[in-house]
Amino acid sequence: MTDRDDRQNRPDSLADAALDALFAEARAERNTRDTGDLPDLPPGGAEGLPPGLSARILADADTLMDQRASAAAAERAAARAHVPARGFAPGLVPAGAGGMGGAMMPGAGFGPVGFWAQVARAIGGGPALAGLGAITLMGLWLGLMPPTALQSGLESAFGTGLSANPYLVDSTSAFEFLDSEG
Amino acid sequence: MAFDDPDAIPDDALLVLYANGDGTAARLLTDRLAPRVLAQAARMLGDRAEAEDVTQEAMLRLWRIAPDWRQGEAKVSTWLYRVTANLCTDRLRRRRGGTTDLDAIPEPADPGLPADEALQSRARMDALQEALDQLPDRQRQAVVLRHLEGLGNPEIAAILDISTEAVESLTARGKRALARLLAARREDLGYDG
């Protein structure tokens, strides 16, 4: 004998079939009755929703929709007010709060952007500018004071001294050569 | 926007339409979902006025989340059942911690009902509700969702945030408890013999 059979025969427990019938009746009640018949149980279907409740729910929906529309309109107005009229990219402002990695979109920004700021952004931002400056200074320093290692490296690479370097120009005039030959 | 066949539009699509400012979508969603929320809340709380408040609050939360709703990630109805379950649990906890709420007492049967069968049916529904009210919250939620709302175990598991096995256990224990509670009223229910 199963637990289910045992329960059905016990006087202190309602049979499964009776309970299932009760559930089925409750589901049917919900789907068919109107609110006047059964105040405790709401019926199914749109027509069964109490009119007052339906109106309150839709009023909430309308209120939130209006609030969102107002907020969006205010945001658009604020964005229009902050778009720069002149500069590197007039009318263009960064999309979002920098989250697009410097992408530019028309009229969707969060404040004015100056000319140099736009140039810096076009190059790649602060880190790119710092790298560019460091490389420039290093090139200048190497040009003015070439280290010995660099010079000996050049000689070993080309197999000659600096005097044989094809890039060195003989500054002796051709007229001086003719004078010396006579 | 014109809705040629409103029934064919999924809930999440309607929610996106509402978020984009379509009031008709809000009305369709209300017609479709609010009665189910109200039924769940009424069964959970055993009180119509409180159930209406919970329904309004649950739908308000749906309107609020509409702009952030990500289509395809969850069913709107499942999300709403879950919110309703949580709201009902909060109210039941508050109710236990406070004084007896007169509104929570089941309304007496309407003496004006003409048919004996209608009266007996009403008595059965009242008995069922009273028995449901005596179940622990989680068992009651599981039984209401499974046997009165007709949801499947996986969906109930998602709503209650538990495993499917736990849902099966909760509904089985809840059903056994209901059977015990209703046994004393076997004759009243008309199920004797």
Automatic annotation (TrEMBL), chain A:
Instruction: Show the segment(s) annotated as Disordered.
Output: 25-53
Regions of biased composition (Basic and acidic residues) lie at 26-36
Query: What's the domain of life for this entry?
Result: Bacteria
Q: What is the protein name given in its UniProt record?
A: Dihydroorotate dehydrogenase
Species annotation: Pseudooceanicola marinus
Automatic annotation (TrEMBL), chain B:
Q: Where are the membrane-spanning stretches?
A: none
Residue stretches making up the RNA polymerase sigma factor 70 region 4 type domain: 126-178
* Alphabetical UniProt keywords: DNA-binding, Sigma factor, Transcription, Transcription regulation
> Which stretches make up the RNA polymerase sigma-70 region domain?
31-96
Name any one GO molecular function: sigma factor activity
Biological process (GO) annotations held by this record are: DNA-templated transcription initiation
In Pfam terms, one family for this protein is: Sigma70_r4_2
Q: Looking at the keywords, is RNA-binding present? A: no
Family statement: Belongs to the sigma-70 factor family. ECF subfamily.
Instruction: Indicate what this protein is called per its UniProt record.
Output: ECF RNA polymerase sigma factor SigW
Lineage, please? Bacteria, Pseudomonadati, Pseudomonadota, Alphaproteobacteria, Rhodobacterales
